[in-house]
Amino acid sequence: MNFASDNWSGATDAVMAAITRHKDGFVPAYGADTLTKAIAERFSEMFEKDVAVYFVGSGTAANAISMAAGARPGGLIFCSADAHLYNDEMGASEFFTGGMKLIPLPAHNGLIAPESLAAGLSRFPADSRTGVPAMLSLTQASELGTVYSVEQIGELAKMARARGMAVHMDGARFANAVAALGASPAEITWKAGVDILSFGGTKNGCWAAEAIVVFSPERFGDLEAIRQRAGHTASKARFIAAQFEGYFEDGSWLATARHANLMAGRLADGIRASKTARLGWAPQANEVFAVLPKAAIARLRAEGAMFYEWPAEGVAPGPEEDLVRLVTSFATSEQEVERFLGHL
Fold this sequence. Notes:
- The protein is about 40% helix and about 15% strand.
- The strands form 2 sheets. A 7-stranded mixed sheet has the order 1-7-6-5-4-2-3, with helices on both faces. Strands 8-9-11-10 form a 4-stranded antiparallel sheet.
- The protein has helices at about 15-20, 35-45, 60-70, 85, 90-95, 115-120, 150-160, 175-180, 225-230, 240-250, 250-275, 295-300, 335-344, and strands spanning about 50-55, 75-80, 100-105, 130-140, 165-170, 195-200, 210-215, 280, 285-295, 310, 320-325.
- The chain is α/β, with parallel strands linked by helices.
- The chain has 13 helices and 11 strands.
- Helix 8 crosses helix 11.
């Protein structure tokens, strides 16, 4: 009963088979091989426009290099107070941008509201000497298992662009968001105003495959050089490309995301029906946040369940309760979910 993180899951058969297919022989290095070029074309097909694709080894690298490519002197990066790049990346974006500041915005269940962005931007008027708004980063799906609608992304992007900002999307769980919304990848990115995307595969069945997808190349001219200086230009890029080949094969990436979302939905339904626990808020993707009695938490762990306590604004557990995070993945089975709910 492992609900600790989708990072704990392994790799899908399709991904591993693709790596095996391409393991032999000699091909040009550093992305000059035909497979890497073919996968870049596959991204363009998926996003319904010509895009530039840069493979990297981690989501943190994708975020930090994207921020560095959009850096401005005195620049400010606006993001949710729950964002991974603010809480979990050791200031990587601030380091790689040469000192741009991260400005955390209050968010409701992980999502930035237009009012919150407007209030944050108002602190830095055009003639301010305290910083220049440069980037807006939206996490899709959010760190709290919620998802921005197409309309919400469009409204926030419009506000950002009115201040001359570029719009970044942290898509570590992008597949889960696409599956949850039933929208196309294009509709929730560049068609809604997103300029650059950190496209994650690792949480959803790859073993180390992340990509920076650029929709507005005129804003990010130095990205190739920044990636090289950051040490993320893979010499054997074909093995990242191979992972994406298996990931996209026969729509596998959305099938695995739908399964993870479905398992999260079943967990949520069982918690709603429980007399001992309650949801912190309704999940939309593959993360469930629930308030459990501490006695139930201890009992579940004694039975082998793995998960984390999690702080969150707006949820006030009682003195004998805690808010916990439960994360599902492509590898989560119905039996695990039923066992967990049975012990709960």
